[in-house]
Structures are given as structure tokens and as C-alpha cells.
Amino acid sequence: MERTDPDNAGDEARRGVGAGANRADGADGADRAASGAGGGVGPARPAAGAHRGVPASAARAMTTFSAADLEKQRGVRRMKLTATGLLLFVALVYVLAKWAENSGAGAWAGYVAAASEAGMVGAMADWFAVTALFRRPLGLPIPHTAIIPTKKDQLGVSLGEFVGENFLSQDVVRQRLRAVGIGSRLGAWLAEPQHADRVTAELSAALRGAMTVLRDSDVQAVVGEAITRRADAQEIAPGIGKMLEKVVADGGHRRAVDLVVTRAHDWLVWHDNEIMDAVQGGAPGWTPRFVDKKVGERVYKELLRFVTEMRDMPSHPARGALDRFLTDFASDLQSDTDTRARVERLKGEVLGRGEVQDLIASAWTAVRSMIVSAAEDERSQLRLRVRASLLSLGARMAVDEKLQRKVDGWVEGAAVYVVTTYRKEITSLITDTVAGWDAEHTTRKIEAHIGRDLQFIRINGTVVGSLVGLLIYTVSRALGA
């Protein structure tokens, strides 16, 4: 029955796919239908644009027929048979009407013949128009036919330009996003505890992933360099001087002094023999031994008395002298050029030591471990605070119109930047994808999806042509009468 259809005349025989498509059923049928010329013998040809970076899935989508595609194709064939059957019917009516007219059946035969003749003309004209979209009618090289297979790439370019001009323009993007009201919707969504929990979990996973990807050596080098550069760029003596001045003024250093003199007193008590031996060992060799011993005991007792009095007397003169020394030193750190220069040299020497650099570098390891542990623990302060912040932000965004407008502005700005900056890349995705489709398989798949509706054009053309022919014949007879 397919051979009686003008759509398939010479074309199915040339492609050799008709029989294979009729036998196709399910996935096996899809493979046979996608195999192309030769009735499915041999592997399917690769997509034409595979070398152009078109995703393989996009190429496969247009070179394989699914079960749904095959069902649609069968529906197209049924509609083709219906349209062709109607054409044959009006042709038969025309033959019978002309026979009746020539046999003197009456005037009615002329009306029927005119209507059926115009119906045949309309049907054939619409058949040609529909067929010319997908293939060359009757296999003849008629200009401006087989539009889809021959103009596929140009259609892809036009589609990309259409999308770019009408969907990726700045005004369209802003208008659409403004109508959505992302700020208020996002706020209402975040205000729900389960949604805040989900976002917190996703952020924690992303944070853990980032900590895993980062190499410790790189981060340690960056942190060490940043700290060293920051320390080198800023003089520390004035800041230390101001801090020391405030500490002395508030009496904050007195506890440190108390601790030092207490520990010094205890040390003297525990090491009395060692101190006296050290004093005796430093005496001249010509002095008698008992004299050295007396001197050592005397020095030890005076030293112990001094430390004891300093520990027990808050108003001890040594404490006052220490207060004045610290006050003067704080002032020198802020104003004395030589003191400040010596502090800067000491700072450079300290930062340049390997031990200090190792300490700075090891700080990152401790920080990373702490962050990863907090991100993994659902009850950690980090995750609890993030969750609380998200809930608070969502509640504010749900009711604060000013904040909503600000969020909408951020989203609109980001979207506009993306579409204006990468519009060419986005439209080229459409163009390259269409260019990567195989022309024959693309034609067959498009026909399977829209061919059934196009066959109604043929049916309508037959009916409308018949009515117009009848009207013209009637008007002509009326004017001629």
C-alpha cells in the first residue's frame, strides 16, 4: 500500500528503509530504522558533526528511533494513506462525473466534475508542498525541494539567531526574572526549616570538598607569605607601645610581676646550695674558703630577702622602678627612632627563622582540620550558626521588600551578564548541535513528529479545493447564463 502513496514514490526504494521500518518493533526496530540506507546492513553512520564537539547524546538522539518515534511514524503512514485515499476517491468521482456528463446525465454531473477536479488539484498541490519539506517529490531534482535535509545547517543558524535575539536579550531576561519574584520566593523557601537544613548540608559538603581539593602545601605557602608580607608592611613598635602603655596604666602587668617574683622566690628556696656554690666559685683563689662560704651565704640571704619583700610588698621600690621602666619603654616604642628601628630588626629576624615559618604553616593544618570536623558534625556550632543565619535571612527576605529588590537586582545582573557575555556560545550550542545531526535521520525524525499534522493539510487542500472549484464553476455558469 505504501507504493500507492505519492510521498513514497521512488523515495523509499531509493533509501531502502521502508521495509526495515515496517518490521521495526521496540529497541531492535529502532536500531534497524536508524541504520540508514541498505535496509539496515552494516553499522549506522556517525553523526555528521561529531568532530565539531557536539555531545554524543545529542547526535544519538537524532540517529535512533525510540518505540514512541516508531509509533508516531506509523501514525504518519496511516494519515498518508487517508490523504492519498481521499485523493484517489475524488479522482474516481471525477472520472464517473465526466462519464455521466458525457452520457447526458444532466447538469449536476458538471458541478460534481468541477468540484472533484479542483479537489485533485488542491490535493496534488498540497502533497507537493508537504513532500518538498522532507524530500524531492518523485525523486526529481526540483529546485527548492527537500528543504529540511538540504537547509538543515541554515535552519540551525536561524534558530540560534532567533533564540539569541528573542530569548537571550537583556530586556527579556530582566522582564522575565522580575515577574518571577526570585527574592520573595527564595525567602519563603529558606524560611522553611527543612530547606534551611538542606542548604546547610549542601554548603557543608561543598566546604568539605573544597578543603579536600586544596593542597596543604599551596595554602601554607600562601598563608605564610600573606602573614610575612603583612608584618613587613606594617611597623609593630608603635602598636606594641600603645598596648604596653595601656596595660601599665591599668595595672595589668602586676599579676605577671607577682607570678615572676613568686616563682623566683620558690626557685631560690629550692636551689639555695647551687646559688651559694656559684657565688663561692666566682671568688678569687687567694681568699680563704670560710670567707667565700660566708660571702655566699650572705649574698643568698640578701637575694632571698629582696625577692621575698618584693613578693609581699605591693609598694616595693623595685616594683615602682619596674613600672617607670615599662612606662618609659612604652613611650620609646612610640616615639624613639632608635628603639623602633631595633624592634623592626628583631621582628625581621624572628619572622625569618624557620621555626616561625613552620609554626605559621602548621596553623593551616589545624584550621583545616577544625573546619572539616565542624562541617561534618551536624551539631557543630558552625552548622548550627549557618542554619540559624539561613532561617533568619529567609524570614527577612520573605517580608522585606527592600531586601527582595536587592536580591532580584543581583540575580538579574548576574543573568544579564551571563546571557550578554556568553550569548554567542549559547547560540552556537544550538547551531553546532543541529549541524551535528545526520540530515537523513533528522528528516525522518522530524517527519515522524509533525508529519501527521501535515497530512491534514493535504486533506484540507482536497476539501477546500473541491469547494472552491464548485464555487468557481457555479459562478461561471451563472455569469454565462
Protein architecture, described:
Residues 1-15 have a biased composition (Basic and acidic residues). This protein is mostly helical and 481 residues long. The chain folds into 2 domains: 2-158 and 427-480, no CATH class; 225-371, no CATH class. 80% of the residues lie in helices and 0% in strands. It contains 23 helices and no strands. Helix 10 packs across helix 21 (401-421) and helix 12 crosses helix 19 (354-376). The longest helix has 42 residues, at 439-480. The protein is rod-shaped.
Tally the helices: what do you get? 23
Helicity range of the residues? Answer: over 70%
Count every beta strand, where a strand is a DSSP E run of 2 or more residues: 0
Distance between the termini: 45 Å
Count structural domains.
2
Biggest sheet character: none
Strand content: under 5%
| Average of pLDDT | 79
Based on secondary structure, the structural category is mainly alpha
Radius of gyration: 48 Å
Instruction: Write the element-wise H/E pattern from the N-terminal end onward.
Output: HHHHHHHHHHHHHHHHHHHHHHH
